[in-house]
Each structure stands twice: as C-alpha cells, then as structure tokens.
C-alpha cells in the first residue's frame, strides 16, 4: 500500500492530475472532498476527459462519505435509535442554554443532545468525532471496512479538513488501502469544523500533522509534482509566493503575453478607467467594500477554484500594510484570502492602492 500527500500550488491542475491518476486504477476508487462545488468540479473533469465517471469510481463529499461509511454502519455501537441524516451547522452545536457568562453546551456524556437534534439528525461539526468514537469502540473496524470497499482513497482539498477529521485520516493511513491526499495549504478559506483537537494543525499545517502525528506510518510527502501553475504567469506566481515563503517559489507553464501582464498598483482615481480598459473581475473581502457595480464582483474567498484573465483586488488595510512591509504579519485567513485573490488571474492582477510616486513595491508595477 502507498500513502502520498501532494502539496499543490494554485492553478497547478490538481483536479486534472487526480482524475487522470484515478482513471488508471482498475480496483475500486473513492474520491472525496469537502465542498459540494468541488465535488461537482471533479465530476465535470471526469466527463471532460473521459465522457463519464468510470463504474469503479465513487465521488462523494466528505460529510456524505462519513455518514454512509462511518456513521450508519456502526451507529448501533453507540445508540439504539436510528440516525435520520445530518444537519449542517456553522458554529458550535449542542447548546444547552444561554448562561450568565455566555452559552452553555451539553457534554459528550449527554450523547443524544451532544451529537443530535431532537429529530435524531447528527450535527455536522460532531460527525467526525462520532465516527472516531465508533472506530475506537469497534477497535478499528470502521477504517477496516472502508479499506475493504475502496482499494484507493483520494482526498482532494485536504487542507480543509480539521480536528477529528485528521484522526480519521490517521486511521485510514494505517488501513489496507492506497491513500492520496492533495491540497494547497495556502488556500485555507474553509474548515469542516472548529474543534480543539489537533488545533495546532489548523490553517493548512497538514505536512506537520503527517510528520508529527503519523511518523510511524509510511507516507510520501510530494512538494514537486504540482508546484507549477498552468494558470498564472511567472510575475503573478512570484508575487503570490512572497506570502508563503516557506513553500518556495511557484513556477509556471503559462507564458502567453498580452501587453498587460503581471501585478499592478491602480490608484482609486484610475479604477473606472482600468475596469473599462481591461474588464477584470473585482475581488473584495466582503460585500460592504465599495466597488463599481457596473462590473462583475465577487468576494475573495468565494473565488477559490475559479480562473479569470484579469482581476482587480480591493485590499484591506492589513493587506496594504503587508504589501509595503513584509515584516507586518497577516492573520492566516487574511493571508489566504489575498493569496487566493492574486492567483485567480491568468495575465494581470490590479491592486487598488493610493500610492505616491516614491513608493516601490517588489514585484509590482504602477498602472500609470
């Protein structure tokens, strides 16, 4: 059995790589990923390359996978009642009441209220913990059963998994199947849940998790195969790489010249002219940021996985501070948002910035 973690740069074609690799397998394959959008993108890529999804390949979101193979076959280990599906929650579930100093939550000893609604739907932030409980109670039968069903397990967007998800990953790495995990730790814009377990590995530290918590399990860490972008030109790759110097500089396989290529500072007074001339997608942190409503706009986090010829970014104050002084630290979410925004563009990135003529930022030209 071979376990592999592949660290992929933005635009490196990881979905194409994963799909082509899966198509080479004759045995059963599971491909799982966190978001519905990415599941659909994987299906779309199979149809684009192969015309259909091969009969031996199953594609599921992470929650669907856990519910089907971790919860339902083993729910009797923990309780007698039938689990009637899952309910998606954004925050912490299982609130008991609002106390004087904030909300009070049920503890795990009150397992019905802790894990389930009164209609016996399991909370999404507790589903991986429930699966881990079943794995422990059955002495590993959950992961053993999964590995008998699927000889090959591929996990896309591995950086989105957190908390007890990582414990499930650890169990599957020990199981009798081939594991391939692919993701970009620089693009952590979502988490499956916010759990204290393995909190130090949040924000894309999947390599550290494998090295520290799975050191007795053989797993290849591959940082080379998907380190070149097919989307961004080299100027865009080089500037985005400054946000995550620990991963080194991303290369490129995209060399088309359009006459307006690279990263540019755009003064606020020039924004309308820039929009009219280049028709970029406007990217902002949130909807309260003022933009030109005559042109398309999207939040930075929502643009993950998408590609545009050109983008125009409306940076936050902390992003601007980092641009002029890299010793200024960015919060992980902010850094990831900026990285995602920059790497959406094939040819040019405009950044709205009210600069003076003396300013000089490495890797960025002035629009005028």
Automatic annotation (TrEMBL):
Q: Which UniProt keywords apply?
A: ATP-binding, Helicase, Hydrolase, Nucleotide-binding
Q: What EC number(s) has UniProt assigned to this enzyme? A: 3.6.1.-
Q: Does the keyword Nucleotide-binding apply?
A: yes
Cite the UvrD-like helicase ATP-binding domain residue spans from the record.
136-191
InterPro entries attached here?
A: DNA_helicase_UvrD/REP, P-loop_NTPase, UvrD-like_ATP-bd
| Alphabetized Pfam families for the sequence | UvrD-helicase (PF00580)
Q: Which residues form the signal peptide?
A: none
Molecular function (GO) terms listed?
3'-5' DNA helicase activity; ATP binding; DNA binding; hydrolase activity
The biological process GO terms on file are:
recombinational repair
Q: Indicate yes or no for the key word Nucleotide-binding.
A: yes
The record's listing under PANTHER family reads: ATP-DEPENDENT DNA HELICASE SRS2, UVRD / RECB / PCRA DNA HELICASE FAMILY MEMBER
Q: What is this protein called?
A: Superfamily I DNA and RNA helicases
- Which organism does this sequence originate in? Anaerostipes hadrus
Q: What is the lineage of its organism?
A: Bacteria, Bacillati, Bacillota, Clostridia, Lachnospirales
